[in-house]
Amino acid sequence: MPEKNKPIRVGVVGVGRGRSFMRAATPTGMELVAICDTWEERLRPEGKALGVSTYVDYQAFLEHDMDAVVLANYFHEHAPFAVEALNAGKHVMSETAACHTLSEGVALARAVERSGKIYMFAENYPYTAYNQEMRRLYQKGHVGEFKYGEGEYVHPDPPEVKLGRSCGRNHWRNWIPSTYYCTHSIAPVMYITDTRPVKVNGFVIPYDFGDMTKTLHMNRADIAGVIICRMDNDAVMKSLHGALRGHGNYVRIHGNKGVMENCRNGDKYRLRVWKEPWEKRKGEPVETVYRPDFPVHHDRATQAGHGGGDFFTSYHFAEAIRTGEQPYLNVYRGIDMSIAGIQAWRSVLSDSAPMEVPDFRNESIRKKYERDDWSPDPTRKKTGQPPSSILGEIEPSDGAKALAKKVWASRGYFGE
Predict the structure, then answer these.
(1) Do residues 58 and 110 share a domain?
(2) 236 CB contacts (<8 Å, ≥6 apart)?
(3) How many CB atoms lie within 10 A of CB 137?
């Protein structure tokens, strides 16, 4: 464990999304010492600008003298990379998803336990100011016991923008099913209420052949996913995530003594808390609307992306390494919210039947799933593996392919 006032030496994998973690190193008491990516044309200039070592080979990167690794590589690659880093004696912070298959989740949980190292799941949406405030209010009993919740992550973009962040036909953004990218909407509810999903029913809004943001994009999945989660306290939550119109991130928590949510109109970082007239304390308003602040480090958090979340993930990772105590977003919670999306896709393909979300804290449960490699990844395809859309295999249009070639070339990518 690094000395309390000694910088934690950290390396980052991924020079795209990883840039936010590179920027967060110094403000959180870490020292960036190395970066790794296979895209050399972007890697070398970034390393030179930062004055750090660069690697295209992950094994060589892991041999660098450092304490911790941040994984900001592709969505479906994190668990194997994390296991290798843990086995090499490094602490790990991983972007979403924690794992791409249930067998990867099993291997990851075992690797963290075996290594004794810190694992932080870098899900940033719980750390917006209003979500941190809702956790504080919930923990103090302001709305009573959690009964129903909603989390929404709706993120539409024009096809040119989507293509620019998904270079290559088999880039993960072009094939993951719509239920998989669920942690931004599920995580805040889990964080606020200290609950986990135990069963899920999955639904999708199918691919729309009349929507140019789909037909001029290389994505072969559906528009959006809806997951109905039964939580471990018998509450119910709805997760909505995808590319519907109406960009926004919203969280609502109904307790048996009130409701709280971030506002949908005007300043969406405001929080609304409602108590029924017959239940509120004397002198307490029925409705309170205000913009909460971050509990700590306002100046640093307001400079970070994702509503301050990009600062707090690195902050809590560094604190966990210094104290030797696993962070709140530990490996088990990371796996919980990641495999909820996998199991929801199984549900979708089974007419929305309920599916268990296994708890990988328990080794006897892990044994049941250690060979479960069910995946829609086109590079792993074999008999029995699922499609990316409820409609089956979708071939991008000629117009999408032509636009993709143009956009990808502008980004320096000339592959298929």
Answers:
(1) yes
(2) 147, 148, 149, 228, 229, 230
(3) 19
The percentage of the chain sitting over the pLDDT mark of 90, rounded to a whole number, equals 90
Residues 158-196: tens digit of each pLDDT = 999 999 999 999 999 999 999 999 999 999 999 999 999
pLDDT at res. 3: 54
pLDDT band at 280 (very low <50, low <70, confident <90, very high): confident
Beta bridge partners of 236: 148, 230
Judgement on whether residues 194 and 74 belong to the same structural domain of the protein: no
Q: Within this chain, do residues 99 and 198 fall inside the same structural domain, yes or no? A: no
Query: Whole-number mean pLDDT of the chain?
Result: 96
Q: Which two tokens stand for residue 391?
A: 């409609």
CA-CA distance, 401 to 305, in Å (whole number)? 32
**Same-domain check for residues 196 and 56:** no
Sign for the CA dihedral angle at 152, 158, 163, 164 comes to negative
**pLDDT for 383:** 87
Cα–Cα dist 74/53, whole Å: 21
3-state secondary structure of 224: strand
DSSP code, position 232: T
Is 147 found in the same domain as 99?
no
Instruction: State in Å, rounded, how far the first CA of the chain is from the last one.
Output: 45
C-alpha to C-alpha distances, 341 to 98, 113, 126, 347, 390, nearest whole angstrom: 11, 24, 18, 10, 14
- List the single range of 295-304, 325-334, 362-371 with lowest mean pLDDT: 295-304
Contact indicator for 260, 273 with CB cutoff of 8 Å: yes
More confident residue, 6 or 189: 189
Together in a domain, 76 and 111: yes
Q: What residues make up the domain containing 101?
A: 8-124+316-323
User: Which residues, including other chains, have CB under 8 Å from residue 374's CB and lie 6 or more apart?
Assistant: 101, 102, 342, 346, 384, 385, 386
Domains held by the chain: number: 2
Rounded Cα distance between 357 and 355, Å, is 7
The confidence score (pLDDT) of residue 299 equals 82
In the numeric block, which tokens belong to residue 2? 């690094």
| pLDDT over threshold 70, residue 311 | yes
Nearest to 81 by CA among 6, 177, 14: 14
Do 82 and 100 meet the contact criterion of CB atoms below 8 Å apart? no
Residues 46 and 178 both lie in one domain: no
